[in-house]
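Researcher: Please predict.
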Amino acid sequence: MMKHLAIPGLAVLCLATPFNLTAQAQKPPKLVKKLSPVSQRYHELMTKVQKAQSQHYAEYRKKLAKARKEAKGKRPAVLPAFAPYDLKPHFAEFWKAAGSFEGEDQISFLLWIVRNGARSAPEQCKKAFALLLAEHHGSEKLRALSPMLASLSQALGAETTQAAINSLLKRSPHASVRAGALYSRAQIALAKAKQLSGTEKRAGIEKALSYFEKALATDDGESWASRARGSIHEFRKLQPGMLAPNIVGKDLDGVAFELSQYRGKVVLLSFWGDW
């Protein structure tokens, strides 16, 4: 049924039956990005690891709950021993996955082995590390490897680690990778310096700080940059006998103050937090 409405200068046609605009108002469906084969395989392996970890910790929680129940609300005399989840069963799968792809598609699997194998699977860690340096030294993806070389030193050996740092500094075309290698060199130098004493210690620390500064000058946008700045600030500004940096704030009465106002007086600084 139709009705005509007379409006001066305008003809309007109305429908007596309501017109459904729902279909027109619906938003188009979101497009789901399909994972590449390498991303899909990596996701599958990581899901398997996470599921196994969750199951491992769930079993421990059951043992803990059982011990508490048997203690009838009291603290158990002996708690069940806790053991971290052992990743060893997964290294072979990641290595096999790396072998099933070519070029840079191997890197994510090899990096996982290196990150997680330093303690639990040192031999697999060394193999993956060697392959990364031999086949992928020109990849920018090694920006994830170069900053953690210092932490791998114990598993790989000091000589291998230093050789890797030198190789990346010389061969990598990417500033982010070279900066990470300099950061690792600084960490190693700082650890050595802390074992010394007197002028040798100070000289060693200054050498390490110069590496931190070179790393930041090469690329200061990486995740390790704040730690590098923190180390520089600590050893350049916060050592015993140095002038304390000025602190600006409010006292308990809400009155503004500066630490420099108390220069020449004995001041007790109490740092605390409620975390």
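Model: Residues 1-24 have pLDDT under 50 and may be disordered.
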